[in-house]
Design a protein that fits this description.
This protein is an alpha/beta fold and 291 residues long. It contains 9 helices and 10 strands.
């Protein structure tokens, strides 16, 4: 960590009585820093790829960045970059991730972390990647005190399976997906689908985003093979105060991979950081909504 930044890390017991690993990068200035809370994506974790470099690059622009692992993401505090708990991964749901994000946001606002004395808790922004982007948008709609949101290659809907797959999944109770990086066969229990079906109204971004006029930045790569950029277009169409920026060649992770071996960001992710900085420098003039 360079001298112009401060770094803290730890764990906190979350709403499901499971540990949530977190880290925060803060600028070294004397004034309390506004804070971005970052949610990782499916088959991701807070230390994936170049996310830490991204956090440092944003912090050098004057913003704190809090990253955390969802409590059912399959990592453990002892193995934060490995899917050492596949049973937890299989039991994960969208509701659980939204609850984790609300919990972390509340913990910041209630100063349950010692470093929050150096954070402006009236200027909190949520940011998420991929499925974490969808979770971020659900939480953004439900948290009027959050000032703005940033969606990185975000999904626009949570049902990602056709009817035949859902029927087979329901009959077997579990669906296995391969992690291309590790070769692991990762379970998804049908409770994930049940959660999405049961809470389809709550998770319906097309229904709720039109009523949310707070600033929203949507960043997507036009060469994204995992979540097509057309989903970014959908989010933009629903958001009254949305800004859409499309990178002409970026993939789903804006050029990053895990592990990321270089000391600098890939060019598409640097592009994203530059757009985030400009957005944050202009988006927070409007006061937060009173609770």
């Amino acid at each position: 960590m360079t001298a112009d930044l401060r770094f803290f890390e730890g764990t906190i017991i979350g709403p499901h009585e499971r540990p949530i690993a977190w880290d925060v990068t803060l600028p070294a200035g004397e004034k309390p820093a506004p804070l971005i809370i970052f949610s990782h994506g499916f088959k991701g974790f807070k230390d994936w790829g170049a996310w830490t470099l991204m956090a440092r690059a944003i912090a050098r622009r004057g913003w704190g960045v809090l990253k955390f692992n969802f409590s059912f993401d399959g990592t453990t505090p002892d193995a934060p970059e490995d899917f050492a708990d596949l049973e937890a991964f299989g039991r994960n749901t969208i509701s659980a991730e939204v609850a984790d994000l609300h919990f972390i946001t509340a913990a910041v606002r209630e100063h349950r972390f010692p470093w929050t004395v150096d954070v402006n808790t009236e200027k909190i922004v949520l940011m998420g990647h991929s499925r974490g982007g969808g979770v971020t948008l659900v939480a953004f709609n439900e948290a009027p005190h959050v000032r703005a949101a940033i969606a990185l290659a975000s999904i626009s809907h949570f049902r990602r399976w056709d009817d035949n797959t859902l029927n087979e999944w329901q009959q077997k109770g579990v669906l296995y997906i391969e992690n291309a990086r590790t070769g692991q066969q990762m379970p998804l229990y049908y409770s994930l689908a049940e959660d999405i079906i049961q809470h389809q109204e709550r998770f319906d971004l097309a229904r709720h985003l039109p009523g949310n006029d707070r600033p929203l930045l949507i960043l997507h790569g036009k060469e994204d093979p995992t979540v097509p950029y057309t989903e970014g277009l959908q989010i933009f169409e629903w958001a009254p105060n949305g800004i859409l920026c499309l990178h002409p060649t970026a993939n789903h992770t804006f050029g990053a991979k895990h592990p990321w071996p270089l000391p600098t960001l890939p060019a598409p992710l640097q592009w994203a950081v530059d757009h985030i900085h400009y957005f944050l420098s202009t988006a927070l003039d409007k006061p937060a909504i009173a609770e």
